[in-house]
Amino acid sequence: MDHNPLLLDGAGAASDETGREERKPGGWKSMPFIIGNEAFERVATYGLTANFIVYLVEQYGMRQMAAANLCNIFSGTSNAAPLLGAFVSDAYWGRFRTLAYASVTTFLGMVVLTLTAAVPQLRPPVDEESGQPLGPSGAHLAILFLSLALLVLGAGGVRPCSLPFGVDQFDRSTDQGRRGLNSFFNWYYSISTAATVVAMTAVVYIQDSVSWPLGFGIPTALMLLAIIFFFAGIRLYVFVPPEGSVFSGVVQVLVAAFRKRKLRLPAPNDAAEQETLLYGNHARKSTVVMKLPLTLQFRFLNKAAIVCEGDMKEDGRSADPWKLCSVQQIEEVKCLTRIVPIWASGIICFVALTQQWTLAALQSMKMDRHLGPSFQIPPGSLGIICLMAIVLFIPVYDQILVPMATSITGVEGGITLLQRQGAGMAIAILSMVVAGLVEKKRRDSALAHGGADGSSPLSAMWLAPQLCLMGVAEAFNAVGQVEFYNRQFPEHMQTLAGSLFHCSLAGASYLSSFLIAFVQKRTGGPGRASWLDDDINVGRVDYYYYLIAALGVGNLLYFMVCAHLYRYKGTPEPEDGCKDIKAVL
């Protein structure tokens, strides 16, 4: 891609550096390869990670809470890596090369992890008397961490680039291209969800009931197929070259504003007049960008566009972007600044989701997981209840709830994007309260009627209500976040927008690890068990659920303040000259 890169012009056609037309976006012709790659990649990665905590406990002899912490750290790092992947993609490699390198890296990580299951010497030895693994040595952990590091690097490239690369294949300047793009989003998310369901049912069942080597080997083979599918469509793809890192543009605005901090803004209370007196060049080379009006919010940044002697070239461009930035650049930085507080509020909501997935699997290991006389649900497959709740609720939401809400509020979509996120947070709090009540019932049942292994005769289906509520919460909050970021981020920051959502999941995983360590330290001690004891029948996981619910209440109040103060992208300054922030919901 470094040689003769293809550029997308305003009409959506691709051209080389000389302007000669080379290739037009293929649209649906290239979709089987991109969506096929995504489907196989989803089955592969979720097939490995959905049941990972069970693998660590049963095959590596890890303590349950240590395994839960490792899963949280791995999940957090995997979701933080897309931020680095987005930077590399936008600044250096472009989406295709980033996807290609990341896919191969993911495959190598899966090969190493599969070898840990297939080669006994790569796992801890088993005690002959108890039949339990003795615990991993430093060498065993080194090989395990090598596989996880490769998987993290792969996730960092695949997650922020997969969806935007598919979007690049459609000509958004035509009605046909826009219709195809809408269908692409539907098919992309539908097939991704279906692939996740397959991974959490068929693949997890093979791991639990047949063998771990086969259960890991199948996803690894599917990842190889995903790579083959991806490269098979190379002659159809349009390659959009990197435009440079968005982070450098943000820093340029901050530096220019700091350098000119002592200057006075012209027309300080009139945004429209001030905009005419500032540097307004906002052209970009390969992206159709929505022009943003100047606002008085974070007005100190506006000083970066004050034109001083020697700041401009003869052709009207900035002579030094570290001294003079355009109004467009400044408003794009403001968009990012406004989004960060909203983004931070999503982390606590995802803590509830993270803990539901991890602790529900551990709870189910001490419950009756039978469906019928012979079939037993694998612990790692319980999350399918949450996914099915999402799949079933979204059509109800779109077809029934949205029209009803629209007729009442008059707002397109029934409620705003921020209100949708807030509703998800409220339902997540409710799910944690229900989870606490169910856990108390499970624990009481285990203590009163548990067998020798401390298992409760209570059916694992008692966990279904909390998981269903969590699915509905995710349908509101997570989907609302994705749409919010894609609509509110500037057009050339779409890769960053995708990575920011994963960073919310990363923050939730890291915060979950901190909460587990904090609760274990503060609630445990000489003569008393921690709430999160390795024996959950001795611990009080229900209290931990209530703690997360209390944090969720505080987070919801914080979010309501942020939402009240938020101004949507492109909203012009109020005519009355009101300073700073206008409440927009």
Automatic annotation (TrEMBL):
The chain crosses the membrane at residues 99-119, 139-158, 187-206, 218-238, 375-397, 496-519, 543-566. The keyword Membrane applies. InterPro entries: MFS_trans_sf, POT_fam. GO terms for biological process: transmembrane transport. It comes from the Eukaryota. Belongs to the major facilitator superfamily. Proton-dependent oligopeptide transporter (POT/PTR) (TC 2.A.17) family. This is (wild Malaysian banana) hypothetical protein.
